[in-house]
Amino acid sequence: MSRYFAFNGDADGLCALQQLRLADPRDGMLVTGVKRDVALLRRVAAGAGDEVTALDISLAQNRADVLRLLDAGASIRYFDHHHAGELPRHPRFEAHIEEGGDVCTSVLVDRYLGGRYREWAIVAAFGDGLPAVGRAMATAAGLDAPTIAALERLGVNLNYNAYGAAVSDLHYDPAALAREMLPFRRPMDFVRQSPACDELGTRYAEDMERARALPPSWQVPGAAIVMLPDEAWARRAIGVLANELGQSRPDSAIAILSPKAGGGFTVSVRVPAGSAVGADDFCRSFDTGGGRKLAAGINHLPEADVDRFAARFTARFGRA
User: Fold this and answer.
1) Residue 69 in 3-state DSSP?
2) Which of 28, 120, 180, 262 is the most exposed place for a label (fewest CB within 10 A)?
3) How far apart are CA 142 and CA 268, in angstroms?
4) For residue 73, what are the contacts with CB-CB under 8 A and spacing of at least 6?
5) DSSP sequence for 176-226
6) Side-chain half-sphere exposure of 172, counting CA atoms within 13 A
């Protein structure tokens, strides 16, 4: 029997994986990539008796491969908080999927494990743009203010590392980062002892200093769009910048466009909690779009569609 873990390379995917592997240290093959590489199950060749765990990747974008793996005799556990569509009905398919705006995959894993490694779920909540959830969980766990601040920084740094057009854009391959994290039952031990943690913090600070200096390319009351340059640092900064702008402008929708090597753009969208239109619904109106109610994206926006995107975005989310 073989085990496979297909996980998003961001903070949520890493921390969900960390919790499960701490609870069950049996070895398994790691299948991952940059944050937007979510169709990961196509790279899994599991068969009869094999176990597959999918973490923080949309079922809707992996449905064909879920069915393929089930037909081949594999068992699948699926933890996710993105749009799923209809769930497969199969005795070897186990779903832990919730699409609410105040939950991430690591929180679902935390519930599954009865809170055994809750601090890793707190890290994920901070990294996945859910600071209120992270602080509430940390406060309930009795953590002090310096520890909460350190877990927040770690979550942000882990999440930032996953953004890029390819793994070559990243400072750490997410699979290598997962192996670096594995020995640490508590994230604060990872913070204190891992050189990877210090390096991610330094690189993050350098990239974000550049990103924060960029002005919006389109802006109306209630909506702003930032276009990033075609640089590796900008591709790394896109997700954290989107979260920061969303938190600093809680009444505005934010879109960040990042050029792709082969042409076109990837898009990250954040919308206010009270928005009548979800970020996921808006992004799904474009090919390759999807995500969650408050945070979503488009994997490929052709250059010819940028003006149309900007017009629709400012019209949909702007205030008169």
Assistant:
1) helix
2) 262
3) 34
4) 47, 48, 49, 50, 92
5) HHHHHHTT-SSHHHHHHH-HHHHHHHHHHHHHHHHHHTPPPSEEETTEEEE
6) 26
| 18-75 confidence digits (pLDDT tens) | 999 999 998 999 999 999 899 999 999 999 999 999 999 999 999 999 999 999 999 9
| Beta-ladder partners of 298 | 267, 289
pTM: 0.81
191 and 228, same domain (yes or no): no
Spatial separation of the C-alpha atoms in residues 21 and 299, rounded to whole Å:
30
Fill in the DSSP letter of residue 44: -
Task: Residue 194: give the domain boundaries.
Answer: 3-202
Is the domain of 164 the same as that of 35? Answer: yes
Amino acid at 78: Y
**End of a domain among 164, 181, 202?**
202
